[in-house]
Amino acid sequence: LNRQYNEEKKKKKETIGHLTLIQNKITLRNEVISNINKQVNVIDGSINRSYKEMRRLQKDLDTLKMNYARNVVYAYKNRSSYDFLNFLFSSTSFNDAVRRISYMKAYRSYRTQQLEAIYKTETLYKQKIVQLTNNKKEKTLTIEDQAKEMNELVKDKKEQDVVVNKLKSREKE
Questions:
Q1: Could you give the CA distance from residue 90 to residue 104 in angstroms, rounded to a whole number?
Q2: Does pTM top 0.70 for this prediction?
Q3: CA distance 124 to 128
Q4: 14-47, pLDDT tens digit by residue?
Q5: Is residue 173 helix, strand or coil?
Q6: CA-wise closest residue to 152 among 16, 30, 37
């Protein structure tokens, strides 16, 4: 009986060690799940910032296009070379004529700058869409990882329950 008792005591120590390992495993898995939750929250914040930035870029793009359209309409209405010459020759002095020519050049370069700004804003908008898509994919993968970890946690807890029940039944014996 003493020999059997000592063997059971030894098995109990081994089982308690196994139980401790399982508890440590559960604790670590809970930390992993907590880190995954934090990561999901960070990704959600990034997605929200991307949405805000996209709305801002869309507003900027609409404003730029509207202003450019207004300038193009104005240029179309005043497209004839006679209008340009009338504008130039209606100057009161040579200096005024030079100023008017530089004004027209500046106006043309302004329209070119507007067009470049529209292209840059559209490019940024497309990049934000790509970034948002990537963030959504990353969030999906992270949530899948979280589900896997949760399943593993459930398995570990079941294993812990089995070990505890075995330990209790041995003690009763």
A1: 14
A2: no
A3: 6
A4: 777 888 888 898 899 899 989 999 998 998 998 8
A5: coil
A6: 30
